[in-house]
Write a structure and sequence with these properties.
The chain is an alpha/beta fold. It has 17 helices and 9 strands. Strand 6, helix 6 and strand 7 form a beta-alpha-beta unit.
Length: 336
Amino acid sequence: MTINIHYQKDADPQLIRDRKVAVIGYGSQGHAHAGNLADSGVEVVVGLRTSSSSADTARQSGLEVRTPAEAAQWADLVMMLVPDQHMSDIYRDDIAAHLGPGDALFFAHGFNVHFGEIEAPDGVDVAMVAPKGPGHLVRRTYEEGSGVPALVAVHKDPSGSAMALAISYADAIGATRAGVLETTFREETETDLFGEQVILCGGVSELIKASFETLVDAGYAPESAYFECLHELKLIVDLLYEGGLGWMRHSISDTAEYGDFTRGPRIVTDETRSEMRRILAEIQSGEFAREWLAENRSGATNLAKFRAQDAQHPIEEVGGRLRSLMPFMDPKSPPS
């Protein structure tokens, strides 16, 4: 399958400059999109509820702030950058009534569209521009003259030019400097959820805790276990990021490489792969999406319980203490 990749030469910057863009939300992605768009000469307004603690921050950055409804009424392109679990309510209450033929509704993640939580009115283009990096990196790299790669997709194209508009938007936030890959809402949503659950967040978190516990239970010092099972992970991930599996294996010792090849498959077994397929099936069927939305509509009590439990894990206490002793680090802690 051929994947279309777009760069600056493929974008028409004027398409997005001819639009009035409402960025709904001012979190990690929202602040980056709004700032980059404005610096690219796009007329942009940030849509935030009056109770939002981000309103003053946005204004201090030189951006105009209106309520989501006011921003959507003013704009002819609305970019939804609020959390998945709140997006459909905000869309229904504040956005939907202000969309009409010729307008565009954009997303940075396909969750709500793919799983049927949001359905745009007839005549409205629906597209996605999804940077493959956190918002602070999207903003910082733009200011440095580079950018973060992004995915683009079109769900509805009544105008016939939704993809060109999406590429123009991606250009304005700096993504075409790194490369913009065409995909679909389905592919982006399902692969994103799978990656989060199986490797990037869920899989890595459980491997870290289980390996730490195994060493500590065997009588090794928690500090040694922390360094081996969490601290050094960044060094390996950096090598993977720079040159893939081959570069990582080239950079480690022969002993480590042999252990990688011979013991790794004993950790990720056929049973593990079978569970990965089950998780993917739950994502594809919408089971996970329904579970996650139901969790939030019932007060997110399970999420709060999970957070509290993991905050008490010994690796968090040991890690916090050790990180505070490292002069080269700026230790971070989650909000209480």
